[in-house]
Amino acid sequence: MALYVYVPILPPYAELLGRSLTIVGLVVGSYGFTQVLFRFPIGIWSDKIGRRKPFVLSGFILTLISCIGLALSPNAWFLLLFRGLSGVAASMWVAFTVLYSSYFRDAQAARAMSLITFCTGFGQMVSTYSGGKIADAYGWLAPFYVGAGLSVLGAGFMLPISEKVSINRASFSFQRLFHVASQRRLLTVSIITAFSQFAVFITTYGFLPIYATRIGASKGDLGLLMFILHLCQTLSMLLAGTIVAPRIGYRATVGIAYATITCATFAIPYIQNLRLLFLTQGLGALGRGLAYPVLMGLSIQGMPQEEKATAMGFFQAVYAIGMFLGPAAGGFIGDAFGLSGVFFCAGIVYLIATALSISMLPKQIDL
To answer: Contact at 8 Å (CB) between 124 and 1?
Structure first.
């Protein structure tokens, strides 16, 4: 919630300060860029010391600093700096997911990821809807200060959580890291998710709010749009690993999911009505929610406990490349070809993700 309460208004606010879609793309993309740099090392470090909780707590502290910095930023370049810092905070999701999965059997990895991404999606849904309303009522800066307060609250809830410390006696070596990173299944799901994140950070977290404002959306409408997207995504996240994937298989689940998002993305430039935009993007969000927890679960399924954070760090670092490159490329494309070009680019990337999912993912895995 602390990381997403200001997301509905960040792109238009960055455009207001920077007056360029390229600047908007860089601000949004900085969130992914720092995650590319930090997620894999955090996973390695967490596995090495056998601890997860300290990383989660440090994530809340960094979120607090980034929210205050965003609120006090005098221009778009400071937004770039502090949104990048929020990406460092989000990198702690590596330790968070592995800590949560440790309470489940390994064969339940997809189920565990469905549950934790459902909780995350629920928080995003509530905060993004509230963020638009808060900005409407109290101005552009209010959501940033609310994010700061939420980060303090989150840290308070985290303090009493206990974890089982597992000492990893294996020595650090690049050979061991290469062994983890070269696992075929891990590479496959990482690359597919990177394509997906490239597209979603161009659209949902990048230029979709700007497009919505251009066809008449208010700050409150932006919050409602994000609420609908996160509601649909959250519900499908819960179903993905608990009901859908166990019944129809991993390949079919992710393939159908990405095919749905592809159609919804290609439709955006042709929509001039807010209700129709909400409807089509809600359908796309249902697909996105089905795919993500399944791919995340596959990234660590079957990995030894002492290598899970390293594998999760690799997975999240690779897909964070898409989170950075998507908005950065989208900004240049938007300035050169307009917003329609941005959405056509995202649709093509989703189409590639669909093809990779159908051709490369396993149908099912029995452990």
So the answer is: yes
d(CA 112, CA 92): 17
Instruction: Dump pLDDT digits (tens) for 12-71.
Output: 888 888 878 888 888 888 888 898 889 888 888 888 888 889 999 999 999 999 999 999
Q: What is the pTM of this model?
A: 0.77
Q: Give domain 10-158+173-360's CATH architecture.
A: Up-down Bundle (1.20)
CB 238 within 8 A of CB 286: no
Among 91, 336, 347, CA closest to 203 = 347
Secondary element (H or E) of residue 97: helix 93-101
- The DSSP code sequence of 292-321 is HHHHHHHHHTT--GGGHHHHHHHHHHHHHH
Angle between helices 93-101 and 308-337 (to 10 degrees): 140
The set of residues, in sequence order, having a beta carbon less than 8 Å from that of 127 and lying 6+ positions away, is: 1, 2, 4, 5, 147, 150
275: left (phi over 0), alpha (psi -120 to 50) or beta: alpha
Chain position carrying tokens 């990995």: 303
Give Cα 26 distance to the centre of its chain. Answer: 17
Residues 6+ apart with CB under 8 A from 174: none
Q: Is 190 helix (H, G, I), strand (E, B) or coil?
A: helix
